[in-house]
Amino acid sequence: MLSLINWRLKVTINDGRALTGQMLAFDRHMNLVLADCEEFRRVRPKKKAGEETAPEQEMKRTLGLVILRGETVVSLSVEGPPPIVDEDKKNAVRDSEHDQRRS
């Protein structure tokens, strides 16, 4: 888990919702702190008279900073790597310039 700090994760919880965000922290109970979190849930539209079942829709909602109780976590999966910080960008540019000079 420690290697996933700052990575973007998708967390499925026991009521069927999925939360996607950058993992900032965790503890031994699997409580998670997620930044820039978004919630995704499937919703069935209400039936109207004479209609057959309508297709499910996925609703998205921005939550921001979330503290998620570990007891509700069903699964975790990696959505993406940690974001590139300004310092990392500067180093990446310097490294590429250095590589170009050596060529």
TrEMBL record:
Keywords: Cytoplasm, mRNA processing, mRNA splicing, Nucleus, Ribonucleoprotein, RNA-binding. The keyword Cytoplasm applies. Residues 86-103 have a biased composition (Basic and acidic residues). It is found in: Cytoplasm; Nucleus. GO terms for cellular component: catalytic step 2 spliceosome; cytoplasm; U1 snRNP; U2 snRNP; U2-type prespliceosome; U4 snRNP; U4/U6 x U5 tri-snRNP complex; U5 snRNP. Belongs to the snRNP SmB/SmN family. This is Sm protein B. It comes from Laccaria bicolor (strain S238N-H82 / ATCC MYA-4686).
